[in-house]
Amino acid sequence: MARRRRSRPGLSWGIIGWLLALTIIGAAAGLYTFARITYRVAVGPEGGENQRIFAALNPIFAMESSLIRLVGVPTSDPHATARALDAGEVDLAIIRPDLAVPANGRTIAILRQEPVLLMVPANGTVEKVADLKGKTIGLVKGGGLNGAILDTILKYYEVPEPGVRRVDLSAHEVADAVRKKRVAAFFVIGPVGQGVVADVVAAISKAGNGAPEFLAVEEAEAIARRNPTLEKLEIARGALQGSPAVPDETITTLAVTRRLVARSSMFDWPAGEIARLLFIQKAKINTELPFAYQMEAPDTDKDTLLPAHPGVAAYVKGEQKSFYDTFESLFWMAWMLCTLLGVSYAAIRSRINRNKHDATADATARVLAMLSEARGADAKRLDLLEREADRLLQWSLHRRANDAMDEERFRFLTLALDRVHQAVERQRHRVREPALEPSE
Question: Which of 72, 189, 322, 326 has the fewest Cβ atoms nearer than 10 Å?
Fold first, then answer.
């Protein structure tokens, strides 16, 4: 007699699901531990100031400990930079909001403030902004881009635009313009410290035999309220030069900002992490970018044109979650999801098993009833019972082969069916006996 092969129980779908979930979680942990996330940054035209700033910032993100990498993407002008961010062609951008504002931009960091300065040579006749009527103004470096701010100032002080002549100058042409008295005032925007402003101050001082005078914009706060891309700024005495002090007293003026902005859709963790790396590495950045000390976090409570990214706001308020905190939250969420799936699977499996057991119980009850029906049945009824018993045996064999019936129930059912066949044979014998007796 051939031995029946016992089927080896396989892994349940619940266990397979748990193993799969743990494998995915482990793979995600490894990916985030060893992988690097790369973001594209719009940096403006080749050789421009924004590219210089990016070159100073980027080494911070090239360190081995950083999960974030930045890649610069050149653009033709400030408007192209803003369009690239809005279109999703880049993830971040370095911008001056007074030139172009991306609709979906959120501030990561204010990289620096650049004061708007009106300077006149020593012993000049211009003492206030209103005196510029009918004069010539030299717009130093980037005059085409900065002219709109000059228009804003002149309009506020009711200096008619047609009554002012403008001349674009480079920093190298300032000294010659002073000596030849080609201009009455110089308009320049740049950082406090090394750069174009310091060069212009030095040129005017040398050619004009004395430090320049500054035209204060006393109503800077009122102008900034009308023009949210501008800000009020106080320049302390001696901020531009120490001996002699330039300016010789604190002056009020306007300022523009250069900002690192991200798309509003950027996740909170990378936005906060980029800000954190910038702020904790200010000293290192300052070796490459002398005015990096001016870098600051955006105002998280002020409703500005380019509000702080939520991830940066969380960092500033001390509520930022580290990457591993975020991963831990995701891990427990995944764990709870796996638990829910496991419970759901167990409930469904229990329901299926209960249905299977109910069908087996019904079949068993029917076999027991057939034992009773066999007693006293006629030949026709016995044939029906025998065929039904054969069908039940075939059904039980099929269910056992598909592991839909356990071994114990199968044995009980087959034993009962065997007794049904025996009862049917005994009853047939009784039915036939009267027919075999001889007639008297």
Answer: 322
